[in-house]
Each structure stands twice: as C-alpha cells, then as structure tokens.
Task: structure prediction
Amino acid sequence: MRIAFAGTPHFGALVLGALLGSGHEVVLVITQPDRPAGRGRGPRMSPVKLLALTEGLRIEQPERISTPDFVNEMKSLGVEALTVAAFGQILREPLLGGLPCINVHASLLPKYRGAAPIERAIMAGERETGVSIMDITPKVDTGAVYLQQVVPIGEDDDAGSMYEKLGRTGGEALAEVLEAIERGGMEPEPQDESAATYVEKITPADREIGWQRSAGEIAAQVRGLSPHIGAYTSIGDGHRLKIWKAIVAEVPAEANQQAASEIPDRLATMAIEPGGVTIDGDRLFVRCGAGALELIEVQPEGKRRMVASDFVRGHKKAIEAKKLGGR
Result:
C-alpha cells in the first residue's frame, strides 16, 4: 500500500521505522516544522525528519496539514492512506474524509484518551497498557479501533522504556492493519463510550512530589516522568531537587519497630514525618505518608544528573536532618 506518514517525536520515528521494514511504500513523510531548541535556540529537526532524511524519503513540514492543497498533493502522489503517530496537529476536514486516516494511539482505548497516555498510565500504577490502531475522527481519540496490542508495564519500566516498547509495537500493529485493509479483511469496532477515560497534558502540579502520599505512589510518579520531564521536590533553602529514579524501601511502618535484617539498623529509627530524610552511609532515604523511598538518581538545581550517593557525599551537611518540601 502507498502511504503517507505523519509524526514528529521519537515515538513517531519508532513507528515509521517499523513501517519501513514492513513492505508498505512510504511515499511521503510529514512532520512539524523545525522549532528553536537548546541554549542557542537554533532550529532543531524532529526525530521523524532525521530518520526520513537518512532513508531518503520525501519530507513536507506544513504549518497546517488539513488544507485542500495538501490533500491534493497527497492524492497526486498516489497516497492510499495517511498514517499518524504523535504528529502534533489535530486533523480536520477536508483531510478527514479526503483520505483514510489511521492513527497509532499509545493506550488501550477507550482508556487514557488524550495527551500523555504513557506517562499517565505509569503514574496511575497500571500493570499494563498497549497500543490501539484506530480511525481518526473530528473528536480526538474516539474513532473505531482496528486492532489493539497489550504491552505489560514492568516494575522497572519508566516512560522512556515504555515509549520504546509501545513505539515498536505500534509500528508492527499498524503494518498488520494496513496489510489486512489492503486485502479487504478488517473492519474497525466502535469504542465503548461508557468506559472512556481522559487524561490531560502533564502540568507543573503533576511534577511536584507530595511526600504525604505512599512510597509506591511516589515511585510511580517518578517513573512516569522519567527520563524526559522529571518529578521534583525542594530541599534545604528551597532549591529544587529533581528525582529521576527512586525505589520503595522496605522499612518499618513505625519508628520504634525493629528493621528487617537486610535493612541497616539505623533505618529502624528513621524519620517518620513525611519528607523526613535519613542518610545511611551514602544512601538517601525519604519517609513518605506510608513507607519510604530510597533515592537512586537525582539532579540538584543547576547541576547535572547524578547518582544519589554522589549527591550525598557532596551535600551531606546540607541535607542531613532536613525535610524535603512538596505538597
């Protein structure tokens, strides 16, 4: 099948890569215009554009894709379907209705419609998510679904690892759907509107850690925002501390209980107030509303990312006996 592909970030590049190995002919790649980025604010090409250039594919970067001229251009190239994965523009008429438009959505629709479905699924503590290959309709993420593939979320998975898994799975599933459509053997099924849930973009409030929550909830928050956004707290004089990796620590629920044998004895008397910090050697623990976290990778304000042991060695006096901030 002759297809056009629209995508912009790394997730889109993963889907495009899978399509290129599928036997379908990608005659046009559409991506967002180069945007200023980095300290110099110079124009930066999207991951999809970089891959398309490497593969020698035709590239277009319209500010608006849903125009009669662009629809006519695709038709002139013999495009039989427009495939989309994390493009960054809402498709409207006359594009919708002018060509079959098929989207890769990174959730098991109708759950997690909207923005940031990967991050939100991890932050919610889900054990699995997946991809849905669906028709695009004027109302976002409501189209009929051709195929879904379930992808487990492991205990060590963060948003970065799930983007990789879901991008590759999405590309393979999309190729399978295109092949079935070409053979005339697949019809999409309407979504169950009664089961629909919606998620919003990640906000600053989503990033700030509230230490009154349980250790498991905060660990999921950290994983869902890593490695590209970052959960944060404040420390000492109010400077921000990003937390990129943390694990639930097996510590006593009450300060006067004996610690388990594999846990250092001093953690049996660790701070019990949420946000309270305990240092054991070069390990850093924070008490939560229920349980505690061990911080593994952090980033002090204005500094590089570092393992928590390096942070402890360089800032021990500043952080010992202090409470971390946050909601």
